[in-house]
Each structure stands twice: as C-alpha cells, then as structure tokens.
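Bug report

Summary: structure tokens for DUF4202 domain-containing protein differ between web form and batch submission.
Environment: batch mode, default settings.
Steps: 1) Submit the sequence below via batch. 2) Compare with the web form result.

Sequence submitted:
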Amino acid sequence: MKPTRFETAIALIDKKNSEDPNVYHACGLDFPKELLYSQRMSQKLLQFKPDASRALQIAARAQHICRWKIARDEYPMDRVGYLKWRETLKKMHAEITADILKEVGYDGEFIERVSFLINKKLIKKNEESQTIEDVVCLVFLDYYFEEFAAKHEDEKVIDILQKTWVKMSEEGHAEALKINYSERSLALIKQAIS
C-alpha cells in the first residue's frame, strides 16, 4: 500500500534528522540526537493529545529538524545571543519542513499552519501552539531533566524548572506531575513550583 502524504512527510523529517552527527545514548544504544528527540516529541504528543491534528503532529516531529546545522556558539553566549539563536533555529526548522511538505503535496494553508506551530506563535492564546510548548516541556522533564539536574547546582535547576513551569498550561502541569522522577528531582520540582 502506498504511504500517505502524512507518512511520507514524517519519513522525510526522520531522514533529515537521522543525519545528525551528534549521538545520544539511551537504552544501551546510540541514536542520532535529533532523530531520537523528534520521535520522543511524537510519542509524548500522542500520549498527551491522542487526537492531535496532522499539522500538530508534523510540527512536533519537526520541532528540532536539522538543529545541529546552527551551533549555539555562533551567537554571543548571553541571554540576547541565546534568544537570537533560538529565533534563527525556529525559522530554519519551519523552512526545511515547508520544503518537505511542498514536496509531498500539501497546500499553502496547511504548510503555513505547520510553520506557525513550529514557531510556537501565540502561546497561551492558541491551543495547538500551547500544546507544542507543553510537549517540549514534557519531553525535557521526562527524558532530559535528570541528566540536566545532575550537572547543575540546585539553584540553577530550580530556576530552569520555574521558567519551564510558567510556559506550560494547567493540563501540562498535571501531565508533568505524572512523570516518574528520582527523589532528588521530585524534591527540586516541588521546591520550584511551591
């Protein structure tokens, strides 16, 4: 059976992300870092919102597409540099994804919607943009938080948790509290949100 446009788009996003030279070790295996991240985004999205639209599913899968192509150190290592880097990345993610969607035959309106979601526009006002933000935060908390917390002082970890929490919806908060954390992490989370 011929794959659908949607399936082809997902496969092409995965193909791009499988080129990531950075490796992430999980479950005893090495994965291209952004390929693993994108698959975790899809999995978490469907756990959180099983009825997510096709546009939302593609935006989640493409959230970090080819992220390694623009290095953080190409920008000043301060807050302004960080924000500029993030904006440039979002634009690139949206453009690469738009090219894939054109290639598989999606129309302009659908492509614009996906770009809007990749850019996480109108968070707190647009339900699907908020869902993407929630899923980004949930993936961080579920898969990357323990590792991050182990490398940093409690004060910095609490600060990052507070910033993460503010970006999330009430529904996102409820989902985040279902994750299985270590005792230390749970204590830090409780401190951050109290």
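Above is the batch result. After comparison, the two runs are identical; trailing whitespace caused the diff. The mean pLDDT is 92. Residues 10 and 58 are 7 Å apart (CA to CA).
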